[in-house]
Structures
1.
Amino acid sequence: MSAVLSAQTAESRSSGASPAPAELFIVLNPGSGARPKDEVRQAIEQELSAAGRRFRYVEVRPGRIVAACQEAARLARDENGVVVAAGGDGTINCAAQAAFTHDVPLGVIAQGTFNLFAREHGLALDAAEATRMLLAAQPEPVQVGWVNQRLFLVNASVGLYPKLLADREQVKTRLGRRRWIAMLSALRSLLEWQRQLLLDVELDGQLKQLRTASVFVCNNRLQLQRIGIGDEIVAQVGEGRLAGLTVRSIDLWAKLRMVASALLGRLGDERAVDSFAMRTLSVGSRRIRRMSVATDGEVLRMELPLRFTVAPRPLKVMLPPVEQRLPPE
């Protein structure tokens, strides 16, 4: 049985010579963000109905966000439509993976905690405003990252960061989804982390052995700018390269200094952090066969070696005209 819950069809206002705007297949994740989902849904419906735009919601059953995104992408492929993700970075990642697999455009109505992908591309965070932007949008190619055939929009990592995310989700379950809660949880995880990874690394064809607390690969200029990575590295992200960060073995005081540097936007100057632009990064280990890998806030177990690279083709993302986009912040 189809997972489509509801549909809104209106007569096209376009002339007979122009094709009707593409139908929107919306995945609204009830677990994303702090705003009640009935308010988000109402805001989306009001804007789309007022514009006479065809749309359908695709049901998200508990624990089945991936299946819902795949269903939406199949419908979009068959109907020449658009997959629309209404949720946080994890939901948007699932929808992007499905849109990439079925080669259909992705629309974004960001409702998460940090919303880095939406912010970088100038998209509004208010549901009604984001929907209005979507109505004026056209598909544009956007670079995405790739780790063992798993797509990421913002970042992917091993080591400290997946642990940080797992701890954050536990805290959010108890205390709620607020940015300050996420930040306090991250600080606690960082201060408690002791593990060091001994990895065999190939960086753009050069082999070396690396001892590190974490390997962080980023595809988001805004995130890199916020933490203070150098402009010469940031400028290459999105132009066929990704940014990589590794963290050396550090004691408690070095950890506190690193946190302060990140908050002040000066992490690129921190001695314990190595940052670089790269095309490919392969990570293996002589002792470990599988590792936890974080991709846009979701943690998965993957077989080694891991190969981080730019995806073989861009993702088609629905973006409004440049003059309508908000400044990244």
2.
Amino acid sequence: MLFSRLREDIACILERDPAARSTWEVLTCYPGLHALVMHRWAHACWNGGLRWLGRFISHLARFLTGIEIHPGAKVGRRVFIDHGMGIVIGETAEIGDECTIYQGVTLGGTSLYKGTKRHPTLGKGVVVSAGAKVLGGFTVGDGARVGSNAVLLKPVPAGATAVGIPARIIEAKADAVREEASARMGFSAYGVTQGDDPISQAMKGLIDTTASQEHQIALLWQAIEKLSAGARELPGAPCVPQEAHTTEQFDAERLNRLVK
């Protein structure tokens, strides 16, 4: 059982990390793997009533790897902890199969009451990006993504994405529309990038609309100027006001860079 789980862990790292070159390299140089192996020892001690020994093994793993996993936490199969430095996983946290967790992630609690579900539950295949803080006893659904440095305080539906501080939920059913809009705006709307922030999307949409309106206004003034050019000598002929802008001055590219 122990060796079969270890083979699974090594295989999932080789599959998901393009930097992994061999089984030996993964076995000897990946702190995420070492932390998970030591957590299984600590978790077995914890469930067997050897609470101090479980905590000591967890503390030793933290010292060796920089990854702190409470021995009471439940971790599924084929979980990949990439880099891992600074990860903190609380006592009542549950991590589903095939999850991926990057450095600096906290699966923390917001309650001080013992015996309650204080820490989050990650479903199958969840990706928690670098620096994200998932705080509370709620569930992150299967296949969901938590963006880098997000502060997540509420449940996430399966397949959805959470980004921002505090995190905002982007429903999976909007993916097709979002990808089409992002292609037009010139930025990526992939789940764990800054461009997936709905506030940023809204700002970019407003900038694009404003730029388009200024272009139309400039064209209208140019048309008025052409129509009045031939009739300027006639009494009462209309003329283009001095303040009219016949050229575009709105710098949409500069404003887009500001909201990236």
